[in-house]
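This week, study the protein below.
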Amino acid sequence: MHPALSASSIAEVERTIRPHVRRTPMVAADMADFDREALPIRLKLELLQHSGSFKARGAFANLLRREVPPAGVVAASGGNHGAAVAYAAQRLGRQANIFVPTISSPAKLERIRSYHANVHVVGERYADALTASETFAATSDALQVHAFEQIETLLGQGTLGLEIEEDCPDIDTLLVAVGGGGLIGGIAAWFAGRIRIVAVEPEGSPTLFDAFAAGRPVDSGAEGIAADSLAPKRVGELMFPLAKAYVQKPVLVSDDDIRTAQLALWNGLRVVAEPGGAAAFAALHSGKYRPQAGERVAVLVCGGNTAAVSFR
């Protein structure tokens, strides 16, 4: 694995981005709050982060630790990464061009535009938007900020692991949703095997599940209710060695599991999570992940860019 992806590097990045990101709350709850068998859990509410998801961490890490040319930055995104890069660029006085596919939700497009970025809607899936963004970067001299295949991105997302451990040092297990793997890769780099990290993916886009089966990142499905955040075609090369070393075999959840988890989070905590943001909780709520007796479990609720009534 890349030597720069270390706990010490993550701690250094955390100090760099600290003035620009929120320290989101870790909330104590019980599965009985969600009409399930009693089990104390902790929920990291990262959906309360600037721009509505964890992606702001990686965005600021890139813009603050890399040289940004006069042409500004360019990013491809299903929505959340684009919103985060646009937000960071606005706050730091930079121009942003964001490429998104047609599957991006209206809520995410509205959020990106609210940060005064130039939005380009290209193709049906994230991979199409990524290709277009790469062409733009090559012809414009803009700095490309990749959603997961970039050292600074993983280090920024890894600061979540640092916060979770500081706020809840006694957990045994952390459930994390996976798309391209920047989030779980950064968190895995922080913990480095000191806790159990459980990957959760939608059945329609099992990118890490398929990579584990093949022994390397491979093209996978890009379908389902969470396709605008958890369906990048394949996981990143940078994160995969970290996943092989430190991440449990992915748990797959259905679209119905995710919808039910969204509604449960609303009914139990009045938390409005987007489908990708609720995926990790869906593994626990559906019973697809069953903790052992006495296991101390935390769940990352990583995004909230959705319309408030979309899961009713």
